[in-house]
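We were asked to recover a plausible sequence for a given structure. The inputs and outputs are reproduced exactly as logged, with field labels preserved.

PROBLEM: sequence recovery
POSITIONS: 229
GIVEN STRUCTURE:
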């Protein structure tokens, strides 16, 4: 679980651990990763993985045993308008979510078990941009292309994508700057279900992709139907 030290990744790690999976969480900082693993449970392991540091990705994957599922949730949010565009920061965030994800899958190839699968995390901003989302929209669009290609290239390993809308109870939403809160409320009222999706919704959708070996190359949108409005 790369990006398993916080947020949706950490909740997925907890849910998988409860079901008896042997989970390894990865993030950039050793102490943060160790603390995350401790909070999951005794069997959970932690290792450092920086998706912008190619050798760190190889080291992380090589410390894993055989892999049933590789889940990539990591994100480095660079949210700003184009008038304040910062190429270095944008490039780092996009590379992490594209080349970083692909590099992790590359190194995992010899370790995948026969029924293995990959789940990558994109975001609705690929199709429904929000103010300041240019970098994230770019990265999240690329995830779909990456999935389409890899689902053929690494077959029979399945490759799917979770595409969350704004997750109402996630830190990313709850800690958004006050000026953005109105946007989330507007989003909620426009959502056909009249509520933002929850972490629990996203975790359940991820398990559907992991467990169902008939699902492959699917961008599973978890957004309460707002994409249709
Ligand atoms: N939350 C939402 O409302 C929402 C909406 C749409 C899409 N999504 C997508 O869902 C996924 C999870 O989002 P979230 O809100 O749960 O994220 P989050 O709470 O911000 O957590 C981000 C995770 O990414 C890791 N990370 C950041 N940079 C990294 C790097 N260079 N290498 C390795 N790990 C790195 C962080 O670990 P360290 O800091 O320990 O390195 C952390 O575990 C993301 O892909 C996001 O785009 C979320």
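RECOVERED SEQUENCE:
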């Amino acid at each position: 679980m790369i990006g398993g030290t916080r947020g949706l990744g950490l909740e997925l790690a907890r849910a998988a651990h409860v079901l008896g999976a042997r989970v390894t969480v990865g993030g950039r900082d050793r102490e943060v990763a160790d603390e995350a693993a401790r909070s999951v449970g005794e069997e959970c392991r932690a290792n450092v993985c920086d998706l912008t540091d190619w050798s760190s990705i190889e080291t992380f994957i090589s410390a894993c045993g055989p892999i049933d599922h590789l889940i990539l949730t990591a994100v480095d949010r660079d949210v700003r308008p184009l008038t304040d565009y910062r190429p270095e920061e944008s490039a780092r965030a996009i590379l992490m979510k594209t080349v970083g994800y692909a590099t992790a899958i590359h190194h995992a190839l010899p370790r995948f078990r026969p029924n293995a699968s990959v789940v990558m995390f994109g975001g609705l901003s690929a199709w429904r941009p929000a103010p300041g989302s240019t970098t994230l929209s770019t990265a999240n669009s690329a995830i779909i292309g990456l999935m389409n290609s890899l689902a053929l290239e690494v077959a029979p390993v399945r490759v799917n994508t979770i595409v969350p809308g704004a997750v109402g109870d996630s830190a990313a939403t709850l800690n958004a700057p006050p000026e953005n809160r109105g946007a989330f409320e507007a989003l909620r009222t426009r959502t056909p279900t009249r509520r933002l999706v929850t972490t629990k919704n996203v975790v359940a959708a991820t398990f559907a992709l992991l467990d169902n070996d008939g699902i492959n190359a699917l961008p599973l949108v978890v957004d309460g139907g707002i994409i249709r409005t």
